[in-house]
Amino acid sequence: MLYKRSSQLFADAEKVIPGGVNSPVRAFKGVGGTPIFVKSAKGAYLYDEDANQLIDYINSWGPMILGHAFQPVIDAITERAKLGTSFGMPTELETKIAELTVSMVPNIDKIRFVNSGTEACMSAIRLARGFTGRDKIIKFAGCYHGHSDSFLIQAGSGLSTFGTPNSPGVTQGTAKDTLLANYNDIENVKALFEANKNEIAAIIIEPVAGNMGCIPPVKGFLEDLRQVCSDNNTLLIFDEVMTGFRLAKGGAQELYNIQADIVCFGKVIGGGLPVGAFAAKNEIMNYLAPIGPVYQAGTLSGNPLAMAAGLAMLEALNQDTEIFKRLDEKTAYLENGIRKVLSNNNVEFTVNRVGSMISVHFDKGAVVDFKTAKNGDNETFKKFFHGLLNQGVYIAPSAYETWFITDALTYQDLDYTIDAIDKVSKEL
Ligand SMILES: *Cc1c(COP(=O)(O)O)cnc(C)c1O
């Protein structure tokens, strides 16, 4: 495949945009080579600036669960745009999407819309702190909750040591309020509670981790977290930016039958436009301004184009009673195919999957947390990535990402992909 025009466009971009990209993972730093510039996309396919067609396994990192340029979403945006694109005043559309969300997701009474998953998680934490009157939060190593200061913290040396910032610009003052725990390790969490009695406002977690590959919660882990939170008057925040409207209509809360206190959304909820949201029961949501003391705002929050896109997407998911089953079946088919060809070619691997989230790790040990996720062989991943790309299959350009399966994929696309993986794995 040729990337002549993409290479030129990347060189042009690098002159005026740091690293040539507006979000770091797009820059191919993890895999080397030139990022591909997209011209258009439809259904399961991307078309790049060099006229290559690619089967897309990222789907805008999740939102395109029903395929690119999904007609009801395109129509909704187009019609809405003719009526004006932003007012900074309430619209009926905001109530409509809020009503639909509240009806689809268990355990929430009210929802507030923002512009990204980052904003949703950042605001959820502020709300939890305001509600509980406590400062500290627990996050899990390897979980991503957007790029706000409190979340850019990596593991310190010991169990109960305070986190150290892993980006310059995050102050020690902020970092000290973020405690780190290992995913799937309830004893670790309990030790943090022991060492920080009555100080922990919230635990925030990806109920299925998706930002260190896909890592399912081990049996009982989410239940235990729920219990620890209830015992300590700490709020449990499910960051469902990735899992919401993907694993089930009601997200991971529904799938695992666990009630979180605050739920964060992004990605699918915006149908491909910039939308995030956070939601909870009345008791908690009424703590927000203008009726409560916790301030949170946004000039473009609830933007009519974004709400129209999100509403069209959620309506489509809500009406299609088979959608999550179909996605699960397609992804299971892909999983089985991958397992078969990698085994046949004697590649050491682990595949993790929950519903339409799947990841391939080049290590034969179980991948259950950030530490084990890091065991994967990155050189093998690079070859795997570029080998697939050369055959027109686009997966995320990083070994730490989940693949997002879209319903637009046909079984023919999946067979083509499995065949491409077979070819690549002979060279690994
Ligand atoms: C993508 C993601 C975010 C951040 O959302 P943005 O819209 O990129 O700010 C937060 N949490 C999780 C779990 C995510 O996957």
Summarize the structure.
It holds the Pfam family Aminotran_3. It contains 14 helices and 16 strands. The protein is 37% helix and 15% strand.
Structure explained in plain terms:
With 428 residues, the protein is of the alpha/beta class. The chain folds into 3 domains: 1-14 and 25-56, no CATH class; 71-319, Type I PLP-dependent aspartate aminotransferase-like (Major domain) (Aspartate Aminotransferase, domain 2), CATH 3.40.640.10; 321-393 and 411-428, Aspartate Aminotransferase, domain 1 (Alpha-Beta Complex). Helices cover 37% and strands 15% of the residues. It contains 14 helices and 16 strands. The longest helix is centred in the C-terminal third of the chain and has 22 residues, at 323-344. The radius of gyration is 21 Å and the shape is globular. 48% of the residues are buried. The structure holds pyridoxal-5'-phosphate. Pyridoxal-5'-phosphate binds at residues 116-118, 121, 144-146, 206, 210-211, 239, 241-242, 266, 276.
Globular, elongated, flat, extended or rod-shaped: what is the shape? globular
Based on CA atoms alone, the radius of gyration comes out at 21 Å
| Total number of strands | 16
What do we call the CATH homologous superfamily of the largest domain?
Type I PLP-dependent aspartate aminotransferase-like (Major domain)
The termini sit apart by: 20 Å
Proper CATH architecture of the largest domain: 3-Layer(aba) Sandwich
The neighbouring-strand order within the major sheet is: 4-12-11-10-9-5-8
- Count of discrete alpha- or pi-helical segments spanning 4 or more residues: 14
Question: Mean pLDDT, nearest integer?
Answer: 95
Domain tally: 3
**Strand pairing plus helix content: what structural class?**
alpha/beta
Q: Note the run of SSEs as H and E.
A: HEEEHHEHEEEHEHEHEHEEHHHEEHHEEH
Hetero compounds? pyridoxal-5'-phosphate
CATH class of the largest domain: Alpha Beta
Strand content: 15-25%
Portion in helices: 25-40%
Instruction: Give the biggest beta sheet.
Output: 7 strands, mixed
Classify the fold: give the CATH topology of the largest domain.
Answer: Aspartate Aminotransferase, domain 2
Poorly predicted tracts of residues: 155-162
